[in-house]
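Board notes (copied after class):
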Amino acid sequence: MLKTEFSIIVVGPSSEDRAVITKELQALWPHPIEVSAGPLSDDADLVFLTGASRFHYSRNKGRANASRCHFIIAVCKPGENPLDLVETGADEFVAEGMSTGALAARIKFAVMALTQKRSLHEATRLQRALLTMRTAIAERGDGPEVLREILCLAAGYLRFEKASFLAHVESGRSAFVLAATDDPTLSQFELDIEDYPEVQAAIASEQPVLIDDVRTHPVTEAVAETLASRGILSLAVFPVTWKGRSMGALLFRKGVVGVQMSEHAQIFGTVLGTQLASQLRDSTLFDRLREQTRRSSRSGYEAERRAKVITSLSDYFESSTEGVFVVDQEGEIVYANGSASSLTGFANDSLLGTDVAEMLYPDQAGVLEEIADMVFDGKTSHNVDLRVKTTSGAYITVAVTTSTVLSSHGAMILSMRDVSEQRLLQSQLHHSNEFMTNLIDSAVDAIIAVDMRGTVILFNKGAEQLFGYSSGDVVNHMQVSELYPASVPQQVMSMLRSETYGGVGRLEQIRREVLISGGELVPVNMTASIIYENGKEVATVGIFSDLRDRIRIEHRLLRAQEQLKDQEQRSLLAKLAGAAAHELNQPLTSIMGYAQLIQRTAQEDAGHLRYTNIIVEEADRMAEIVKKIGRITHYETVPYVGSASIVDLDRSVEASESAPVPVLVFDDDEPTGRITLQQIADSHEEEMRNENTAKIVLSVSQSTDNSD
């Protein structure tokens, strides 16, 4: 019996005709024979066509969409002309009732012919595919989109589900996915070549590697579970080489067991790899990948060296109470000690490989970059505050100190200490200080604080107004001795340390002078105290009240009092003079009346008339004196016996008649000492009553002395 993997199908409209040839074939064929009335299946290999004169089959039409080649054998009934069977499109014919031997020979010939036919067909098909791919690259370049289209076509021709194009530089540990059919985004994706033993085998042998079942093949033994879990059961790898130089590999995968790849298909994969290698060698992409691989190799070498140094320092790191992170130049955490895990709440395994910037508050990436620049420039930084995320999602404030021990190995050491509570207290203290500063600055009086070296450390707004200096020019720049006359600071400190002036450390209000910016001495009231810390003097503070306005008011009040006193004296004199004149006029009138009566009644030669005339004359003179006394409003004095003085009546009368009545005039803004016209009139009531012509003249003058 014939043994072959080919299938036989008997096709024809007549069941009787189909039954005759089927019976003959069953004597030779060990496999089931398919019988069909038509149409022809794409999976058919050897097709026995019965009833050729009654059933016309067009090969072109019947195989237009066929994925496999058929070999058509027409069954010639007795009396039929075999040449007529050519019209049916048959490749061979057999006579119905042919001997078993002859039929077997025909079938063997048909199998050989079909094998050659299919081989030629496949070679032609794959050759056309290569031409199509080459044309696509020539016309559209070797970009990821074109490479992916080529991989899709190749996977279809080779009957695989997935395909990838890997670029690999000799001696490098990394491979780069230039294109993949299953994910268009996988372009220049880097992977570790050691994780792909099948690719390593193809590159090393420069021969295709065909694996029917990844679970049983020795090459994929180490990664069998991983591949199977991803639905990959068989694969084929073709090396991409150019003149013995490895440049990568083509990797085909599918989820069923069995590669079933013909020799032509293997040649197709090899030629496609060579074609892509030829294209890749002329591309700048491979040069970039080679440089990237070299950098990766150097980076890997540095990473190994760094790991050894970290291992040698691990005992020191683990003994530290601060969180220690070792971060490479890309910002990736390559080591974290136990305290770092306690600080953040993250396990060490989850910290390794994490970008340290992802653990920081979003606006602090720039600060981290500045820190890294300093470290790799050979400089360290101390207590730089950063906000670090914990497992709860909350952020803590840490003080970061850096080290350059690993900078030559491409890494920096970050030591972190939790200072959240300290910074919170500092913030609260800052707000309190701001409040106290605003409170001090809002005070009207000058407030000055001085350290024990005599340097001014506080100078409020009131002090700026009093002394004429700005706070920036004084604080930490001027000595307190520059704000006083000589020896006054020493006096004040002696009084502060004495028990006499309010107790030790306190000074009750005293009056002193301070020296302002223009060199002027200004009188002030001041109080002061000493500030202690743990019983030790650390500073003094003084409060100063400007007395210039108060002294001006006191001077004005004093002058007003003096003027009022003088006015009272003048008013008293006027009243006294009026009263004296009034009281003297009555007896004087009587004296003059009786004297005149004596003159009229006495004889002309009477001896007493001479004395009476003297009395009348002196009485007239006294009357004139009384009249003068009544007109006095101002008085002038002349020296008398010893140091005494008496009123000069003549000069006083002249002064009273010529001078206006003095009036006190006060500024409108003064709240004290205001004198009304009624008060002036009352003070001169007597003069106005005794003299019909008395008048009051108001004299208004403006002093040019601002202190009056």
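Comment from the instructor: The CA atoms of residues 136 and 606 lie 177 Å apart. The chain has 20 helices and 23 strands.
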